User: Fold these one by one.
Assistant:
Number 1:
Amino acid sequence: MRVKADVIYYKKDVPLKPIVDHLREKESTILRAQASGIEKDSIILKGDVVTLEDIAKEKGVSLEAVGLALQGFRPSGYARVGNSSSPRGSSGSWTRGRTRSRNSPRRLR
C-alpha cells in the first residue's frame, strides 16, 4: 500500500485507515482556513444571547471553525456559557451580564 498525492493504491482490499486519515487532514485544512478568516475584532455581539451558530451563519463558515477561531474570545459585557472547552462540536453562546454558578453564594438584600 502506498499513498501518493490524492491517490491511495491498494490490492484486493480497500484500506480504510489511509482514507480516513486523508479525510481528517482535508477537514483540518478547511477548518483552519475558515477560522483564519474570522477576525475577533469583526465580531459584534448584539442582544442578550448570541450563539456560535448565529456567528457561523453570519460569517458563512462552519460551527467548528467559529469555535476554533474564537477560543479565548472575551467580549466586554458578555459571559461565555455552554461547551467552551472544545472547538469541535461547540454549542456555546455568550450571554449579556454576569453569570453565577449554581453553587455561588447568593447576596441577600
Number 2:
Amino acid sequence: MEERTRTGRKKSSNPNWNKEKFNPNWKGGRIKNTNGYICIYSPNHPFKDKRNYVLEHKLIMEAHLGRTLLPTEVVHHINGNITDNRIENLMLFSNHSEHLKFEHNERRLKTTK
C-alpha cells in the first residue's frame, strides 16, 4: 500500500518532497514576517528562528562587522523604514536599554521642533 500524507494525498518518493526549496511556492528564501521585517532563509545561523529564518538587517550588520551579533545587540533602522536594510540606514546598539534611550531622545527632539 502506498504512503499517504495526513490529508490523504499520495506521498512522493522524493526524500525532499516537503522541503521549502522544493516547494513550488519557494521564493528564494526571502520573506516578510508578520511584523513587516524582511527575513532570509539561513538554516546554519546560530540565531535562526524555528523556520530557519534570520532578520535581514541583522545579517547585513553581521557582514559589515565581520562577526556574528551578540544576543544582546540591537540593530536600529535610522529612517524608521524597517524594509530599508542598507548599511547606511542601520545603527548598532549594545543592548535594548541603549536603543530605548536613543529612541526616547529622538522622539523628544521631534516633539520640541
